[in-house]
């Protein structure tokens, strides 16, 4: 006789969201560390994932580290989210990004209004959704839920 445990759908969604958020910041700090090593930046603030005030210049190595680590994080997390949530990568990607903006605003004590930060975030979000949804489709195409548009 098997033990059956029924979990409420909202609890599963919250559990997946927390898992994705932890995964996001774990990957962020790993990619930040790797970019620091590659670009030989030996001094960077612990709050670097929330820094939107760094001067956007290709001559500024700290800016390049922040930009590259952001883009790598978003792309890699899109692929990892596909393994965690299967077909709903786009939903969790947007939710994690909104939470990241809220956490960034809280940590930095102001709302980010710099266009370069929003452009990097938008590009990262698009790569996260496209990469993650593509992987999810390839891995779980037999389980995808397709809407019935026959009566539409």
TrEMBL record:
* Name of the featured protein: Transmembrane protein 244
Keyword set, alphabetical order = Membrane, Transmembrane, Transmembrane helix
GO terms for CC? Answer: membrane
- PANTHER family, A to Z: SYS1, TRANSMEMBRANE PROTEIN 244
Q: Which residues form the signal peptide?
A: none
User: Principal place where this protein is found?
Assistant: membrane
The keyword Coiled coil belongs to this UniProt entry's keyword annotation: no
Q: Does the keyword Disulfide bond apply?
A: no
State the annotated membrane topology for this chain. Answer: Multi-pass membrane protein
Write out the annotated subcellular location: Membrane
| Membrane-spanning parts | 12-42, 62-85, 92-111, 117-140
């Amino acid at each position: 006789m098997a033990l059956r445990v029924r979990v409420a759908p909202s609890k599963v969604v919250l559990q997946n969201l927390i898992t994705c958020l932890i995964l996001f910041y774990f990957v962020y700090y790993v990619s930040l560390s790797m970019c620091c090593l590659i670009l030989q930046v030996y001094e960077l603030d612990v709050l670097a994932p929330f820094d939107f005030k760094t001067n956007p210049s290709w001559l500024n190595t700290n800016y390049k580290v922040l930009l590259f680590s952001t883009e790598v994080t978003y792309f890699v997390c899109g692929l990892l989210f596909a393994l965690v949530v299967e077909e709903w990568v786009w939903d969790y990607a947007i939710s994690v990004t909104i939470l990241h903006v809220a956490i960034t605003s809280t940590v930095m004590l102001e709302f980010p209004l710099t266009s370069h930060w929003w452009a990097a975030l938008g590009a990262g979000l698009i790569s996260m959704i496209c990469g993650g949804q593509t992987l999810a489709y390839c891995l779980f195409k037999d389980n995808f839920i397709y809407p019935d548009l026959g009566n539409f």
